[in-house]
């Protein structure tokens, strides 16, 4: 999914929050798993649309975050949807870089690897690759 | 999924934002469709856990929003997951009240009914029931 140019009203239609951001839900196309939630500013969305690879805005680092730039765990974007209030985006992606796929910096498939069970947040999925091994040798 | 009591560290583990809220991704169990994103404060989460039905915090109305209270489109909650940063929740639900299921106040199945196509946000799914009919006769 690559658009070399697109009308500004694609961006204007979005209700950016007070910080100029929107939350972005990321769903894996093949499994339908929700992999993560990240944030975009307008520059991140523009780059995502132009390149076809997911680019977010890192609130902690306060800069664009090209997903996979360190880990190699790039996300190829197939589809971008927007919700009724135009304040959340939903990306449908292929998560590249590892099999089975790893979206989370902890080495889990999905960031949502803890589930409420018996009154506690409980890990429900394994670490597929140790973070030291992910970030020692960026692809 | 009903927990008559649960430890406070379930709530304490969550990184609530400056307004005391977290975003909540809602995924339908049977279809794996992402239905919506809403927000919870700690009271909404407590009620959701206790009742087993989704309760959110409405930012526009500034009060608890028992999903389906007007529309009848209640969400039965099967699973609550939390992400690596503990600042987003993921609910797995059965969307009740209509067949096929309607989560969106617009009468669409999912709130994400518009997709970026050819440089414009384009409706990709039908209205299943007109909002006037949904909100005229709450179940």
TrEMBL record, chains A, B:
It comes from Candidatus Symbiobacter mobilis CR. The keyword Phosphoprotein does not apply. One of its GO terms (biological process) is L-histidine biosynthetic process. One of its GO terms (cellular component) is cytoplasm. Residues 36-113 form the Phosphoribosyl-AMP cyclohydrolase domain. PANTHER family: HISTIDINE BIOSYNTHESIS BIFUNCTIONAL PROTEIN (PTHR42945), HISTIDINE BIOSYNTHESIS BIFUNCTIONAL PROTEIN HIS7 (PTHR42945:SF1). Mg(2+) binds at residues 83, 85, 87. GO terms for molecular function: magnesium ion binding; phosphoribosyl-AMP cyclohydrolase activity; phosphoribosyl-ATP diphosphatase activity; zinc ion binding. Catalyzes the hydrolysis of the adenine ring of phosphoribosyl-AMP. SUPFAM superfamilies: HisI-like (SSF141734). Its EC number is 3.5.4.19. Homodimer. Its cofactor is Mg(2+); Zn(2+). It is an enzyme of class 3 (hydrolase). Belongs to the PRA-CH family. In the C-terminal section; belongs to the PRA-PH family. It catalyses: 1-(5-phospho-beta-D-ribosyl)-5'-AMP + H2O = 1-(5-phospho-beta-D-ribosyl)-5-[(5-phospho-beta-D-ribosylamino)methylideneamino]imidazole-4-carboxamide; 1-(5-phospho-beta-D-ribosyl)-ATP + H2O = 1-(5-phospho-beta-D-ribosyl)-5'-AMP + diphosphate + H(+). The keyword Cytoplasm applies. It is found in: Cytoplasm. Keywords: Amino-acid biosynthesis, Cytoplasm, Histidine biosynthesis, Hydrolase, Magnesium, Metal-binding, Zinc. Its main location: cytoplasm. Binds 1 Mg(2+) ion per subunit. Binds 1 zinc ion per subunit. Zn(2+) binds at residues 84, 104, 111. Pathway: Amino-acid biosynthesis; L-histidine biosynthesis; L-histidine from 5-phospho-alpha-D-ribose 1-diphosphate: step 3/9; Amino-acid biosynthesis; L-histidine biosynthesis; L-histidine from 5-phospho-alpha-D-ribose 1-diphosphate: step 2/9. Gene3D superfamilies: Phosphoribosyl-AMP cyclohydrolase. This is Phosphoribosyl-AMP cyclohydrolase. HAMAP family: HisI.
């Amino acid at each position: 999914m690559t658009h070399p140019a697109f009308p500004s009203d694609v961006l204007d239609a979005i209700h950016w929050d007070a910080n100029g951001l929107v939350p972005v839900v990321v769903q894996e196309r093949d499994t339908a798993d929700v992999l993560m939630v990240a944030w975009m500013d307008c520059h991140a969305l523009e780059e995502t649309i132009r390149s076809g690879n997911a680019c977010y805005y890192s609130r902690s680092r306060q800069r664009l975050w090209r997903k996979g730039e360190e880990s190699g765990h790039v996300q190829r974007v197939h589809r971008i949807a927007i919700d009724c209030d135009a304040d959340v985006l939903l990306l449908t992606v292929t998560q590249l870089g590892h099999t089975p796929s790893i979206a989370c910096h902890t080495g889990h498939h999905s960031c949502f690897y803890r589930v409420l069970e018996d009154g506690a947040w409980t890990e429900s999925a394994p670490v597929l690759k140790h973070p030291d091994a992910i970030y020692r040798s960026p692809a």
